[in-house]
Amino acid sequence: MKTSGSTGIPLQIATTTVTRLLWSAFAMRDHFWHARDFTATFGVIRFMRDPERGAEGVRSKDWGPPAAQLRTTGRLCALHIEHDISVQLDWLDRERPDILLTYPSNAVELARQAQRGARALPRLRELRLFSEVVDAQTRSFLARQFQARVTDVYSANEVGYIALQCPEHGHYHVQSENLRLEVLDDEGRECRPGQTGRVILSTLHNFAMPLLRYESGDYAEVGEPCPCGRALPVLARIMGRTRNMLVLPDGTRHWPIVGFSSFRAIAPVVQHQVVQHGLDDIEVRLVVERAITPDEEEALSGEVRKALHHEFPIRFSYTKSIERSPIGKYEEFKSMIA
Ligand SMILES: [Zn+2]
After folding, report:
1. Within a domain: 6
2. How far is the CA of 226 from the centre of ligand 1 (A)?
3. Beta-sheet pairing, 42-46 with 99-102
4. What CATH number is associated with residue 281?
5. Tens-place pLDDT, residues 178-200
6. Using an 8 Å Cβ cutoff, are 76 and 44 in contact?
7. Domain ends where: 241, 271, 300?
8. pTM of the full predicted structure?
9. Distance 141 CA to ligand 1 centre (A)
């Protein structure tokens, strides 16, 4: 299989029957941990391959492997991510899934569009997120808007399942049977609970192409052991890739939290993306409902500077939509500084 190359270089990874079997095992563990009802209708809005990209979506009578190999399941319906949010809401109205799997950024767009158009969101039992980093603020916003349980999973094509969300607590349990995960600080020392460092992975079962101390590009905060009784190591938070970190003029890097709710309180912003092109060049890309006034631009600049913890010069650009990466990821903040 190939990875997206979101860290720069696409990788081609050899997989084996054993790695695929393990993928299935961890997928089932995730279902069992979260006590999913296998008879539920499972909806998916994600990146799909041609020719499955029509606005009517695709249907299948069961969830597919591995769940359908082990249990009798409800049906599955899926829609390609690139459809307009209003098309997605229409599709949800028709399909009425109980569980919806999609990207956090897309779930946020669904919630906001439903709010604006006074449309109902589907009555979900569970909103299942994947593929993008999701912060606590976004998770609670989504839980409120969808009135559903929100779960997340941490996985990567090149290694499979990395960590599953604890069903009793918001943090993540490392899937140590699949891989060894180290969180290292800048000096290469193992981080302690409460500390954040680089995520380094070694796969334990891929003998066709072992990855040894593979730098994932992600950062995570180590957590305390979990009181739930599961002895698997805990990650308190997972943060984005290095390229999603802001670089300050003194060379330090940090994760900006560029809140969507504060933007919305200032001006009719539909979608936003903040791009750092250089140490003194921040571009704010906006999709808006109507032209933004100079006063609103000024107020938005203030919010962005506050989030970035620095008095950057800020320029605005306006666009009809903000593109996702080739595999459907949407980045709220990205830095082009290597
Ligand atoms: Zn736990």
Report:
1. no
2. 5
3. parallel
4. 3.30.300.30
5. 999 999 998 999 999 999 999 99
6. yes
7. 241
8. 0.79
9. 23
Q: How many Å lie between the centroid of ligand 1 and the Cα of residue 290? A: 46
Do 280 and 208 reside in the same domain of the chain? no
User: For residue 32, what are the domain limits?
Assistant: 17-241
Q: Are strands 196-203 and 214-222 parallel, antiparallel or unpaired?
A: antiparallel
- Rounded Cα distance between 6 and 241, Å, is 9
From the CA of 201, how far away is ligand 1's center (Å)? Answer: 21
- 197 CA from centroid of ligand 1 (Å): 21
- Give 229 Cα–ligand 1 centroid separation in angstroms: 6
Same domain, 209 and 302: no
Distance of CA 228 from the midpoint of ligand 1 (Å): 4
pLDDT per position as a tens digit, 272-311:
889 999 988 999 999 999 999 999 999 999 988 888 888 9
Residue 63 falls within a domain, yes or no?
Answer: yes
| DSSP run (H or E) holding 141 | helix 136-146
Tokens of 48: 């799909």
